[in-house]
Amino acid sequence: MKKHNRNLLLAGALGLAGGYAAGKMLSRSSSPSRAGAGSLPTAGVLDTLALAVDVLAPTFAKGVIVRRPAVVALAEKLELDRRAIGRMQKLRNKYGSGPLMLPLPIRKQAVVFSPEHARRVLDESPEPFSAASSEKRAALSHFEPKGSLISQCPQRTARRQFNEDVLEHERAVHHMVGNFLPVVDDEAQRILATARAQGELDWDTFNAGWTRMVRRVVFGEGAAGDQEISDMIISLRKAANWAFMHPKKTGMRARFLERIQSYLDRAEPGSLAAVAATVPKSAETEANHQVPQWLFAFDAAGMATFRALALLATHPDQAARAREELHSKPGMERQYLPFLRSTVLESLRLWPTTPAILRQSTRDTQWGDATMPAGTGILLFTPFFHRDDERMECADRFTPELWLKDDKVREAQNREWPLVPFSSGPAMCPARNLVLMLTSAMLAALIDKGGDVVKLVQEERLNPARLPGTLDNYSLRFAFGAGR
Fold first, then answer.
1. Which of 28, 103, 335, 469 is deepest in the core (most CB within 10 A)?
2. How far is CA 155 from the centre of its chain?
3. Given a cut of 70, is residue 406 above it in pLDDT?
4. 110 pLDDT exceeds 90?
5. What is the pLDDT of residue 33?
6. Sheet architecture: strand order including 477-480
7. Residue 3's pLDDT band (boundaries 50, 70, 90)?
8. What is the rounded CA–CA span in Å between residue 22 and residue 56?
9. What 3-state class would DSSP assign to 454?
10. Phi then psi for 111, rounded to 5 degrees?
11. What's 45-74 look like in SS3?
């Protein structure tokens, strides 16, 4: 199996390298197909190939469900995300605001370019723009076949409500904060102790502590050492990267879901499992199928936290501001840290952990005078909206101030150019506020207990004037000073 995985990884890397070279050859695109009355613009064949080479292939080769570290490293080296944004800009400038239909033989597919259209698709989910797209169902069914994201109504309603109730999606601070922050603090101290012993903080050390923290928060202290459940979801997610092209590991999935159910039944005090035991459920809720998505989301949150630490390590003024915030908020006052939350959000803007937001139309929809057919897949390429330097002056710079504005100002800004690190609308990630609470608390603990000086090894990788299009979190390493 290990040899098989290595071969697949090598094939993906070679495919990326070949795609990069092929992209050079596709710079001369075919003429656009002008939209006639009642029809949307359709990309030419060469433009569709260029989109596949520059945008789709790198995105999926890196791994949509779980990242492939070797391919992420290659993507940073070749600046493939920046190249993808450039391709989207060329298509937008050539075909207009869209949506742009792709001439695929077996699938109706559209790409969104304008903020107005992006907002419409997100605001009008799940009907008529369902989050349960064919691709998403094929992938997520590997480990959560009855998860809310790939469910249709009425099951979706019950499952979504369960997620919102347990994760408290509308509360900036979860009511279990008094239980969760000491867990974060304890794991941060473990991470730093290991880092000091080995002379630096690397991804493996951080991720081991982060994953342990997640198990304690979700399931309780009894799961702290349950590495097997974390290994199982990683194995299932690796299969999910291939969606319908990989057979399902049904036996492992059954054991995984049974293990989750046992923790939910135990409902250990101080955990999300305990909260789950108190919220209303129905026969359609399938609670143990909702929890895998929490573990999935927290994995991405760890990546964002590590990258946020790299941003602070290479931006002294912002790092000083973060320390000022920490000094003004001791102990449990650190349950809400606006500047550190904004730092995590900037990490997610610069390097989205969900690069492709997918929807699928459930019926014919009108776009001005044009009609998009039912069953059309719709792609929102998040890096394009977050880092379009033709529209955003700060596209490639660390600008946490974007997230510190008044809510009304932020809403108006998003209408002009959407920033959607947690998606948006009715299908927005229900763990958004819980994730920001835990990630900012972990950042705070690492900065506070790691000393005043947090130095990124190979800090030249992050040029503050023009941050890289891709940042390989797996190779980041930090040296912690003893303080001033």
1. 469
2. 25
3. no
4. yes
5. 53
6. 201-202, 477-480, 454-456
7. very low
8. 14
9. strand
10. -120, 135
11. HHHHHHHHHHHHHHHHHHCCCCCCHHHHHH
